[in-house]
Amino acid sequence: MNAHFFLTLLENSGFDFFTGVPCSYISPLIDLLSKKPFNIHTPAVREDIAVGLAAGAFLARKKPLIYMQNSGLGYSLEAFASLHLIYHFQALVLVTYRGPQDPGMEEHAIMGQHTEEILSTFKLNYSILSQDFSSQKLKHISTVIEQTSLPYFLLIPQGVITS
Amino acid sequence: MTRLEAIRTIIENIQDKVIVIHANGAISRESFYCKNRDLNFYLLGSMGLPSSVALGIAISRPHSPIIVLDGDGNLLMGYGNLAQAGALKPKNFFHFILDNNAYATTGNQPSISNYIDFENAAIASGYNQAYFADSISTLEKILPQIFTSDGPQLIRVKVSLEIPIKAPRIPYPPEEMKHRFLNALLLPNN
After folding, report:
1. Complex ipTM value
2. B177 neighbourhood in chain A, CB within 8 Å
């Protein structure tokens, strides 16, 4: 899926605050975001800081999106647990899915193997992004975010987002 | 100056429209004990992230002044926030560090803040100003000054370990705090 198309879907859905730590799996998307001013796209120095920034943006009545590798999910879990999950802050979280399906990346083997398990253990809503993603599917995700008032996690495998 | 005196001095010398984000633990509880304000937001946990939350609000609401009441241990845990604030340069961001050189909420275990020059670290990271206050009178002098120039600014407030009262936990459930804050932001004067 073309990054420009994906970003347009997100913006049309009202997402207006983007922050996170990069991953090559979504680099075409981040390239587009990087052209925007800091009040719309804020590169974060750590994933948990991105979670904090998004919490603040939500308190300022923005509709935040956070992006990170699944390695960053480890750093972020406590931030989500003590911010979004108890105060009920809304966010869409793009988590690139590095893991067992990506050979030669030992550093991602453990987190990759347990990524979905971790999300399930924390009872977090998630799905895996596929090529047939559409405005309908995003509308459904937005509804889940609003109804639960919790973050929703979209796992992004390698190669789904293209330039 | 005790932490309670520092918090009371800050909270009683700011305008109603100033948003105050509080670090978890004693800082939240003592501020709530001093004065409960609708634009006060109290973090229950998320050690290391009070300034991140405040920055997220600051860049999203550039016309609202934002104070963060941070602790030395909290800042050291989220030290990347100095770089984050210095780079984003929100003019409305005022970062107070209540520095008691300890993790007081968990029993006064020493922090390493006595080895660190927070004021110079902030300036090197891109903050516009950095102040130091070790008495109520200095703090009272600094407070009206900071709002006349642009943020980000860091104000290190040296406080003692003395705890004059044991402030109770904040009685609101977290979701209620969120609703209270979100509703307060909708009021025309804010």
Report:
1. 0.97
2. 87
